[in-house]
Structure formats: C-alpha cells, structure tokens
Amino acid sequence: MAPVFKWRTMFDEWAKARTNKLEVVSNFIMEQTGVEELSPCSKAKIRKCVHSIQVKWDKANRHRERFLNNASWLEDGLDFNFAPDPPTDPNRSGGPQKAFKDCSLKVQTRKMKELVESTSKEELSKATELALRKAGKRDSAAIVKQGALFFFSYKGHEHQES
Q1: What is the β-pairing status of strands 4-6 and 77-79?
Q2: pLDDT of residue 68
Q3: Which of 5, 68, 110, 161 has the least C-beta neighbours within 10 A?
Q4: Are 79 and 9 in contact (CB under 8 A)?
Q5: Is residue 72 part of a domain?
C-alpha cells in the first residue's frame, strides 16, 4: 500500500523551509518512507503538491492564520506510489500516442512497415481473414481468402516457370 501523508504535514514541512521548498519536502518524504531515490512520477507529484500549497498560500496573502482558517483540505490524505515508473522507449518523445485508426495514412503505413517486413504475406492475409470473420464480416473474409488463394497460386506458378 502506498504511504499516505496529510496535506497538513506537507504544509508544515513546506513552511519550515526558507528556500528550496521542493527539495525540503522531497527529502522529508524520502526520509519518512525510507525510499533512497524518487521516481520521476513521484517527483512530479511532489512538485504539483508543493505548487498547490504555494498557490493557496499566495491566495491567503501569506498569512498563516488566514491560510489555516480556509484549509479544511489540509486534513485530506495524499498518497504516494513509489513503484518504479514503467519502462519507456528512450528514442520516443512527444505527447501520447494516437489510436492507430486516428492516424493519417502516412503514419499508419510507417507503423505497419515493420510488421509487413517481418511477417509473411500468407500470415498477413490469414490474419486479415480471421479479423474480418471475428468482426462478423464473413463475405469480406471470403473475398480476402479467395484473393489470397489466387495471388499465392499465381505467384507460385510464376516462380515455377522461371
């Protein structure tokens, strides 16, 4: 189970620090949980927490009494999951991936290039046929099957003559 801290505890640690409040809060959390190094995900969560406290502190005109009077949220829990982040591809950058169907034809072609190069034409046609059958498109599956039979028998015949 992930450790849970009260916002109030986080605020108290934040308020103790004169400078570098993010580092002070991060070190406090690491000390309390026994974690030696924070994952990027945990660092981002702590950064958001510290930012949230700072924004609310500024709204209270940096008066402790005013801040605490309007801060019932300080009693809420804040949980941290210190599991390692899932591995990511170091060569990939940018935003989240689009669904394949939402990509342009050019992007779809680029994504399929590796699959097409590493898979036989027979396997691809059979996979297409099975996917169509699974989707309830039996007529389309039959057309793919007939086209594949014609193509592969014609290709085989062509190779025999050479």
Answers
A1: antiparallel
A2: 83
A3: 161
A4: no
A5: yes
Same domain for 106 and 73: no
β-bridge partners, 4: 79
**Alpha-carbon gap, residue 108 to 80, rounded angstroms:** 38
pLDDT of res. 89: 64
Domain that holds residue 147: 100-161
> How many angstroms separate the CA atoms of 138 and 5, rounded?
57
Residues 67 and 132 in one domain: no
Cβ atoms within 10 Å of 40's Cβ, excluding its own = 10
pLDDT in tens, 93-112: 677 777 888 888 998 888 88
Please choose, from the candidates 94, 7, 106, the residue with its C-alpha nearest in 3D space to the C-alpha of residue 48. Answer: 7
Specify if 94 maps to a domain.
no
Based on the fold, state whether residues 48 and 107 are members of the same structural domain. Answer: no
What is the domain count for the chain?
2
Contact predicate 82/26, CB 8 Å: no
| pLDDT at 162 exceeding the cut of 60 | no
Tell me, yes or no, whether 107 and 68 share the same domain.
no
Q: Which two tokens stand for residue 54?
A: 């700072």
Report pLDDT for 85. Answer: 53
